[in-house]
Design brief:
The chain is an alpha+beta fold. The protein is 14% helix and 29% strand. The chain has 2 helices and 9 strands, in the order H-E-H-E-E-E-E-E-E-E-E. A 6-stranded antiparallel β-sheet has the order 1-2-3-8-5-6, covered by helices on one side. Strands 4-7-9 form a 3-stranded mixed β-sheet, with no helix packed on it. It is globular. The two termini are 30 Å apart. About 6% of the residues have low confidence.
Length: 155
């Protein structure tokens, strides 16, 4: 009975499928290796073996490097906690300027309607949420300040 279907959920799933189709990183034919991914804590620092064992830590960043060098990098911000988590977005010192653009947010209302938005260096991801960001060339624009200020959930 599709008349009672959750249209917001269906829209979110459709957006996830579209994201997967756009990015070859989700179509690899092998397990992720060291050069494919960086596992980071909410402060943007590499996770160490003891971090994986830490009780009570339920937030992380997953930086996926593209198969094609021309494709954007992807950053997954995962917050499985009940409360909001501040994330410090990673950067590459000495690299060409780039910024992160939010392309998917599980907490958006409705979930499928997140317009691409530049993110500042610090973002607040609500509890039990997943955000996906793509890298874009150039410094952050005025619409997404690069001053370290915090950015809340999408509306």
């Amino acid at each position: 009975d599709w008349s009672a279907a959750d249209t917001a959920l269906a829209g979110f799933v459709a957006r996830c499928i579209a994201l997967r189709r756009r990015h070859g990183v989700f179509a690899r034919d092998r397990w992720l290796q060291g050069s494919d991914v960086q596992w980071l804590n909410p402060h943007g620092e590499a996770l160490h073996p003891h971090d994986w064992q830490a009780r009570g830590v339920h937030a992380m960043q997953v930086w996926l490097h593209p198969v094609d060098a021309q494709a954007p990098e992807l950053l997954l911000l995962i917050n499985a906690q009940l409360h909001t988590q501040v994330f410090e977005l990673p950067s590459v010192p000495g690299s060409a300027p780039f910024h992160w653009v939010l392309v998917l947010a599980s907490d958006a209302d409705p979930p499928a309607a997140v317009p691409p938005a530049p993110l500042p260096l610090l973002v607040e991801v609500p509890g039990r949420s997943l955000w996906v960001a793509e890298s874009r060339a150039g410094p952050t624009t005025a619409s997404g300040s690069d001053d370290g200020s915090s950015h809340g959930a999408p509306s």
